[in-house]
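Input record (Table S2, row 687):
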Amino acid sequence: MATKMNRTLIYLADLGHNQLTISSDVYPLGVGNLATYAQAYVRSPGGLDIRIFREPHDLKAAIDEQTPDILGLSSYSWNHNLALDFARYAKAKRAATVTLMGGPNFPLTQPEQETWLRGMPGIDIAVRGPTYEGERAFRNIVQRYVDAGGTVEGIQEEPVAGNLWIDRRSGEFVAGPEIERIADLDEIPSPYLAGLMDPYFATGYLPMMAIARGCPFSCSFCNSSVQSNSRIYRHSLENLKADLVYIAQRVRPEVALTFADDNFGMYDFDEEVADFIAYLQERYSWPRYIRTTTGKNRGERIIGIMRKIRAALPMTAAVQSMNPVVLKNIARSNIRLETYTQIQTEVRAQGMQSYGELILCLPGESRQSFLKGIRDLMDAGVKRISAHQLMLLHGAPLSTLESREKFGLKTMTRVVARNIGNYTGEPVIETEEMVVSTPTFSFEEYLDVRVFHLLLTIFYYEGNFEEAFEFAHQQGVSAFDLVSQMHAMLEGAPAAFRKVIDDFVRESREELFPSREECVAWARRHFAGLVSGELGGNLLSKYSMLGRFYAAAEALDFLRDALAVAIGPRLDEAGLEQMEAVMAYLRGVMLYAPFSETLSATPVWNSAYDIEAWSGENYSRPLADYSFGETRRIQTMVDEKRKAVIENRIRTFGEHPAGLGKFTRTMFARDFRRVVLSAQAASLANC
Ligand code: SF4
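Output record (iron/sulfur cluster complex):
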């Protein structure tokens, strides 16, 4: 067998779409690990020249300049077709380039793996590894490449552990022997200390680390849940500290730290990591925010860790369902609700926002049980809940044919919001397979719950209408009940607001297709509309912007009517006067589109209540305590600085739902309000 003596040029790419959105905003740790591992363990007389890539245009430029011997591509649901596009592009430049694909986006069973590989003729080899840990499988395939003289045919002469392919000559499906997971993650040399991540410190992307790999839970919708991934393997504290210091000395202090861990905060070891993070916060004022997934049990430990690292760790109540039948069906266990409630108290004490996550259409879930889950989380103090739709991920047990049949999962395909682009001359369209009905959750119910969630997003999550919800609360109506009331009254909502909801439902239907082929054909026909944002995108974000900024006056009228009905007969004359004072206040202070008009208006109204003072004291006493004892004239003005910020952002992002969706992400509800002159000033102005 010939031995290749030349230096082997390897490009490893964990690509992200970047034309309409940044599909992933973290450093490419996965390909960094593959690079250092191969450099450390592949024996190659000519040596390896390994380069890593994140941006499609960088990879294209590199391929144009010099096509590599090996091109390795990571596959996730948001970049799979982008990866395939670059495999095609590289092969067209040089057919001898060996194309590899790894990552979690890979089916679980061998028949599905074979079908998957046969559908990707541009990929020579799937680098699978144990579950989807790629380092050892990648080392093996590169070693074989070097030993076999640098051809695909040479590689495919016999199976390679951890790798799968369709044999070039025989057309047979070949799966190499299984390999063991890496038990000591220090076996992987640090990509940070090797300098591979240095170019990313200037980008604004978030540095990513993995303290541990593995997850002891077995949630069947998740591709981390397979049995072989259940043991937890770690880096040593010493190595983690070295990486953290390396990052702390280079990163801008406002940039968050990301842990790729599935259950941070659940293990004793994480307490030692937290101690060191607290030291870094003292020494480098970093990290101020940590993005990760917190553990599903050991709530007390998580609370202790949150305290140690002072407001930097948000707790995500990612319960996915609160229904015991569903939890059994998906083999998931959650932190107990009482523990969640304690954690939410801690989150609020640290001045942080709390998030919850649920998934629609899980097996056994019904409309009623799903809405109860939202109510339970809101009652536990969670301020914002993501109601994700169930996506069938390759590699997750719920995606197998057997599970689909067992649970009667009906799916449709849609474009992954804004994950499209044209990088090499061909449109690339990412798609996802969504569960849209089950025997216990009909498609119409799926749409109906999406509408409920849209109402929560418009009215509750951002705190835009906080005073109305606080008034409802003081009158014995919970936020959930107020939104339920609006949901029940939608038929009679003001026409402009009703149109927002109808259009949302229409687009939610239209974005779904029976197959990927039909979805892609539609997306290609409408590519320009998708790129401009006129079509597609994140519908929840788009329509929440329309409801909040374009039908704002009607939304306020609708809220007022629902509030009156929800409080019902308890709303006496004084209560009615207070409610109207709250609504007049909201009408007076809120800024909305067209901003050229609302930014220059300075409404004046009469009120018998000091809503500002009530809100300023965090609604700790009844609104009745804030009576002026007379009717006063309230005047408003637009803060010049605030006006300049809004105008500047409109110039940058555009005054349309997609633009507003972007710039509101970094602004608070209060940034879209006029300033009320003090009661005294208003009173003087009245003189
Ligand atoms: S959803 Fe989270 S807890 Fe469940 S298996 Fe996946 S990573 Fe583990």
